[in-house]
Design goal:
Layout lengths: L1 E5 L2 E5 L6 E6 L1 H4 L4 H7 L3 E5 L5 E3 L15 E6 L3
Antiparallel strand pairs: 1-2, 3-4, 3-6, 4-5
Length: 81
């Protein structure tokens, strides 16, 4: 389990490497993308946790070369099998 400090608030990342989580991207994160990508990345989607602790959209057909920090995910919860 990782703990990251963000804006003087500790954010707990309870997920293991390879875990698939359901989450949305934070509005501040979405605002960094152009309008077309914002529409595609908005809403709830699946992310996979990589060994470096970052998350990548699962099955991303866009070839998006960007991974996200746990702190950039909103309402993350483990995907039930």
């Amino acid at each position: 389990m990782e703990t990251r400090l963000m804006s003087s608030t500790a954010v707990q990342d309870p997920f293991d490497t390879g875990c698939v989580v359901i989450a949305s991207l934070a509005p501040a994160t979405l605002s960094r993308f152009d309008p077309m990508l914002r529409r595609l990345l908005a809403g709830t989607q699946l992310f996979v946790k990589h060994a470096d602790g970052r998350y990548h959209p699962k099955g991303c057909a866009l070839g998006l070369p960007h991974c996200f920090e746990f702190s950039e995910l909103v309402r993350a919860e483990a995907r039930s099998v």
